[in-house]
């Protein structure tokens, strides 16, 4: 869409999001949600009434929209009405749907080793090793630049991660050697993992496809995605008795509650906990009691 074809209302919303440093994907999703509302009511979205918003959310539910889509749409419309239109009263009629939190899929260390060996080429093996070895999100992996590798301090610089925050991730000696092997082969200059056009980084879709291919080759039946490697990273650290607050920092979580989810899947940690039942002093059988 050209600059001339953007309506004043859309331009204002884009400006409101830009000044708050919203990620480009978030801006795209928010605009799409407002466009879908406009299509549903058949007129400009700024004319939507409280009843229109209620009917639109009901429409999403009846048409099988999942909880994540409904909640992201609610977030977008709340921003549109509260910030862009200054109509906070309308936003109150939008309801977030509670979604029970599922346990993440986690690979065992043996499965991770098989998975990485099955990666389709050194480029994807290196990228997927970063996801597991440093616990990065897929968007953070593909956005890495060669200059983000700090071999002296053994750190990876993550720029504009989730929430637009910068942070440092761990760089293990094994991962550093793997990245050096990749650099010696491909000699990337800008992006650490360039795409088909070296001007651009590899896309998250490319890496996800490679991840699925590696899981098939490794004959892993679990539903594996790049984020599975991040889950496995956190869980394996927890099973090594690394302090959960340290893991929180490494993952870039804003809240400890988010990191605490991994305590529910850290099976080694659970097995090492002694039940209070095992600490009870056994009672003597009634027949062994001394006479009163």
What does this structure look like?
The protein contains 14 helices and three strands. With 292 residues, it is mostly helical. The protein has two domains: 85 residues, Tyrosine recombinase, N-terminal domain (DNA polymerase, domain 1, Orthogonal Bundle), CATH 1.10.150.130; 164 residues, hpI Integrase, Chain A. The protein has a three-stranded antiparallel sheet with strand order 1-2-3, with no helix packed on it. Helix 2 packs across helix 4. The model has no long low-confidence stretch (mean pLDDT 87).
Question: Short description, anyone?
Answer:
With 292 residues, the chain is mostly helical.
Count of discrete alpha- or pi-helical segments spanning 4 or more residues: 14
**Level-2 CATH architecture of the largest domain:** Orthogonal Bundle
- Name of the CATH homologous superfamily of the largest domain: Intergrase catalytic core
Low-confidence stretches: none
Secondary structure: number of strands: 3
Overall geometry: globular
Using the coordinates shown, work out and report the CATH topology of the largest domain: hpI Integrase, Chain A
Strand order of the largest sheet: 1-2-3
The total number of structural domains is 2
Percentage of residues assigned to helices: 40-55%
Approximately what portion of the residues adopt beta-strand conformation?
A: under 5%
Structure class = mainly alpha
């Amino acid at each position: 869409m050209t600059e001339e074809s953007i309506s004043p209302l859309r331009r204002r919303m884009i400006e409101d999001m830009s000044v708050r440093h919203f990620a480009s994907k978030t801006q795209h999703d928010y605009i799409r949600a407002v466009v879908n509302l406009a299509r549903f009511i058949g007129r400009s979205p700024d004319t939507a009434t409280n009843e229109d918003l209620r009917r639109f959310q009901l429409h999403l539910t009846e048409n099988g929209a999942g909880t994540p889509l409904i909640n992201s749409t609610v977030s977008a419309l709340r921003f549109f009405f509260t910030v862009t239109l200054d109509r906070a009263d309308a936003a109150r009629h939008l309801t977030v749907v509670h979604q029970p939190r599922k346990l993440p899929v986690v690979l065992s260390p043996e499965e991770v080793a098989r998975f990485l060996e099955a990666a389709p080429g050194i480029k994807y093996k290196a990228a997927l090793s970063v996801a597991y070895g440093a616990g990065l999100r897929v968007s953070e992996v593909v956005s890495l630049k060669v200059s983000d590798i700090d071999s002296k301090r053994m750190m990876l610089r993550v720029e504009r991660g989730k929430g637009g925050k910068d942070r440092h991730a761990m760089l293990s000696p094994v991962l550093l050697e793997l990245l050096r092997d990749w650099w010696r082969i491909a000699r990337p200059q800008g992006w650490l993992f360039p795409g088909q056009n070296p001007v651009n980084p590899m896309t998250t879709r490319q890496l996800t496809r490679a991840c699925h291919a590696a899981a098939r080759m490794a004959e892993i039946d679990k539903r594996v995605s790049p984020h599975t490697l991040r889950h496995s990273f956190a869980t394996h650290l927890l099973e090594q008795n690394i302090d959960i607050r340290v893991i929180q920092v490494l993952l870039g979580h804003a809240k400890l509650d988010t990191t605490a989810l991994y305590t529910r899947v850290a099976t080694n940690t659970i097995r090492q906990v002694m039940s209070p039942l095992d600490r009870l002093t056994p009672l003597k059988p009634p027949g062994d009691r001394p006479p009163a």
